[in-house]
Amino acid sequence: MVVPAPQPAPTVLYTVEAGIATLTLNRPDRLNAFADGMLSTYLSCLRRADADPQVRVVVVTGAGRGFCAGADFTRLESLDIEEFRRRVAEEPRDVAFHLGKPVIAAVNGPVAGIGLAHALMADVRFTVPDAKWTTAFARIGLVAECGIGWLLTNLVGTGRALDLLLSARRISGRQAHEYGLAQFLSEPASLMSDVRAYAATLADNDPDSLREIRQQVRLDASRPFPEALADGYERVFASLERGRFRDARARVRGA
Asked: Quick one: signal sequence residues (predicted)?
């Protein structure tokens, strides 16, 4: 009798409940470090959630005791540079940043390097107090990849971004919360219930409004205030012309 070989566990788990898609990075033995197509799987799961009309909000977290330790060092040494260059060109890494739905990162443990960059692409971040946060790049001979320089600067300012990148020091989740990198602090036992409760409040809002507000904030970060003001009113006019405001009001009244 031939016993079939056990199938490897999926590197990203995908579940949907009550309008909330939960993506769980699933290499707990390596603190969920990205390797062997795992990042491509994660990006595909984000696109899947974006395309699903039943999904209103996306939550990203890690299995086990970590969120994501970055890239798996054991695979970096044998990396084919030209293949890596091709993959980056063909598959942009900023899917979460441009998603049409809110993204919440639930940082349950260590987050570093490219894992930190992907956490910072979320709209809202929860963290446990003792989670270790670090850019890590300068310690291992790399540079600020995946747009993390821009992300950090826009979140905490140039001085603090340079400190975190140049020193590559570790800060706690509590410090990350104080710095403004995480908006919410939760105890480990209540992290996911806190995240889901918050996600449920977003899922109850108008999805078109959520999508456009995300777009506005991203655009407003790099344009003059008069442009932001004018664009905001144009979006208001368009919403009123489409009757979306009336539809949303009716939905709220009927709830």
From this structure: none
For residues 181 and 246, state if they share a domain.
no
Nearest CA to 116 out of 76, 158, 156 is that of: 156
pLDDT at 75: 64
What is the residue range of 238's domain? Answer: 207-254
Distance CA 186, CA 206 (A): 27
pLDDT of 135-193, one tens digit each?
Answer: 999 998 888 988 999 999 999 999 999 999 999 999 999 999 999 999 999 999 999 99
How far from 171 is each of 29, 175, 237, CA to CA, in Å? Answer: 22, 6, 45
Asked if residue 105 belongs to a domain, the reply is: yes
Residue 195 domain-assigned (yes or no): yes
State the angle between helix axes of 113-120 and 148-156 in degrees (0 to 180), rounded to the nearest 10.
50
HSE-CB for 245 with a 13 A CA cutoff: 7
Number of domains comprising the chain:
2
Question: 180-218 burial, b for 16+ CB within 10 Å, e for fewer?
Answer: ebbeebbeeeebbebbbebbeebbeebbeebebbbeeee
**Tokens describing residue 122:** 């979320």
Q: Rounded to the nearest 10 degrees, how much is the dihedral formed by the CA atoms of 47, 51, 52, 53? A: 140
The terminus-to-terminus CA distance of the chain in angstroms comes to 58
Over the range 6-31, which residues count as b (16 or more CB within 10 Å of their CB) and which as e? eeeeebbebeeeebbbbbbbbbeebb
Q: Closest by alpha carbon to 43, among 82, 109, 90, 108? A: 90
Q: Kindly state whether residues 110 and 68 are assigned to the same domain.
A: yes
Q: Look up tokens 């566990």; give the residue.
A: 9
Q: What is the mean pLDDT of residues 33-57?
A: 94
Look at residue 76 and tell me if it is in a domain: yes
